[in-house]
Amino acid sequence: MAGLKRRVPMHSLRYFISMVGLFSKSGLLPWYARNPPGWSQLFLGTVCKGDFTHVVATKCQKGQKSQKKPSHLGPLDGSWQERLADVVTPLWRLSYEEQLKVKFEAQKKILQRLESYIQMLNGVNVTTAVPKSESLPCLLHPIIPSPVINGYRNKSTFSVNRGPDGNPKTVGYYLGTWRDGNIVCVRSNNLKNIPEKHSQVAQYYEVFLRQSPLEPCLVFHEGGYWRELIVRTNSQGHTMAIITFHPQKLSQEELHVQKETVKEFFIRGPGAACDLTSLYFQESTMTRCSHQQSPYQLLFGEPYIFEELLSLKIRISPDAFFQINTAGAEMLYRTVGELTGVNSDTILLDICCGTGVIGLSLAQHTSQVLGIELVEQAVEDARWTAAFNGITNSEFHTGRAEKILPGLLKSKEDGQSVVAVVNPARAGLHYKVIQAIRNCGAIRTLVFVSCKLHGESTRNIIELCCPPDSAKKHLGEPFVLQQAVPVDLFPHTPHCELVLLFTR
Ligand SMILES: C[S@@+](CC[C@H](N)C(=O)[O-])C[C@H]1O[C@@H](n2cnc3c(N)ncnc32)[C@H](O)[C@@H]1O
């Protein structure tokens, strides 16, 4: 990050420390740095020693002990962009090697907490049959690093609000909170996880807003029109931009004028420098609208963005979920694939499948792939991707997994080999999905992918592993957590994907 000092303020350190809790005294951490090895090597690899306590202690000495987190937001302590970097990418001051150690420790804590919940529920240690390390409930593999460390995001969402100079037409990321009424919108130019292209489009959107006679929509009930900007890019550099707009009481004709103006700006005006592949416009009167609630209107260009991944050409609609780090996603999906252990007799259930990448990448090794996804556009993408790549043994269902899955599993007999992969959104899985999985004897293997194992996701896992409970209709045998693999898709941030293998 050009121009920013590698100084570690106390509030950042407090954050790291609270995240990892008490560090392992043994200092023995499975650990790979710099050169991401191949999957097999990672999976079978040896461990090497790293003493994270030492890393934090050194950083603490460098930090200023007396420094307090300021209660107001003013440019007194470092630049606005430095502050933004500390909020959005709080690990950015650490080397990537150090970041991975922090994350590995955090994942270990999560697993230890999970183990204590499961033990409490069962009254005994139900996972003693499983190979353990450092009192963990399962085999914890080394963290798989992201192949790309900087500018890895393929999707960024920019807000519009008052900048540090008070200009309400500023495009960037928020500092402060709505509750405290101290929101400041700061440009993203120095965030390590955002590619230059995304910041460029955001800057040109800001230029456009500043010349528009219409006001931005800062607070919903106070009027205004221009809202957030989403930028998506692929590995080839194709760029899709989506502008959200509050129509207020504009007539269709007035709306048309606005759409033409912004289109002209990005095709022939200063915004042409962004070389957009497509521009979408969404009229939205709610905080967030799906395509079904308010369609994405293509103002110009290609309606989809495509990505090459695991030898597949994947179509991605503006509304479809796609992992935000493409190279990291490839590592994640390979990990999932290895853990499923599918063969030509396996029916693979891809629950919350998004554009279907997990299932489709394994289709050739299975007898059938069944995907379930809520977002219709994503399911259409999955079907397109299957057809384009010549995959004929996949079937995708649109709707809520809790509605579709019980019916889908009814016909599955105990002797069949069904492997389930679940990759829910942060809200976790509906209890009916857990019931359906538990009660389907054909499912002996389950791979659970989570980027935030807390709240509902933790409850999901507990309900998968707890003893049979007829009141909760958990009749089938409990699952046992066997292995866990952390995969880092989010360098510079504390987030990490965790892939869990359960069997029964
Ligand atoms: C974390 S994403 C994973 C997508 C996909 N596995 C991938 O890697 O691209 C979670 C997906 O679950 C979908 N989803 C959320 N709630 C759902 C539900 N109740 N039933 C089915 N899908 C749901 C979301 O639309 C989103 O595509």
From TrEMBL:
S-adenosyl-L-methionine binds at Q323, E373, N423. One of its GO terms (molecular function) is tRNA (uracil(54)-C5)-methyltransferase activity, S-adenosyl methionine-dependent. SUPFAM superfamilies: S-adenosyl-L-methionine-dependent methyltransferases (SSF53335). The active site is at C451. InterPro entries: Methyltranfer_dom, SAM-dependent_MTases_sf, TRM2_met, TRM2B_chor, U5_MeTrfase_fam. Keywords: Methyltransferase, S-adenosyl-L-methionine, Transferase. It comes from the Eukaryota. Residues 344-408 form the Methyltransferase domain. GO terms for cellular component: mitochondrial matrix. Its EC number is 2.1.1.35. It catalyses: uridine(54) in tRNA + S-adenosyl-L-methionine = 5-methyluridine(54) in tRNA + S-adenosyl-L-homocysteine + H(+). It is an enzyme of class 2 (transferase). PANTHER family: TRNA (URACIL-5-)-METHYLTRANSFERASE (PTHR45904), TRNA (URACIL-5-)-METHYLTRANSFERASE HOMOLOG B (PTHR45904:SF1). Belongs to the class I-like SAM-binding methyltransferase superfamily. RNA M5U methyltransferase family. This is tRNA (uracil(54)-C(5))-methyltransferase. The gene is TRMT2B.
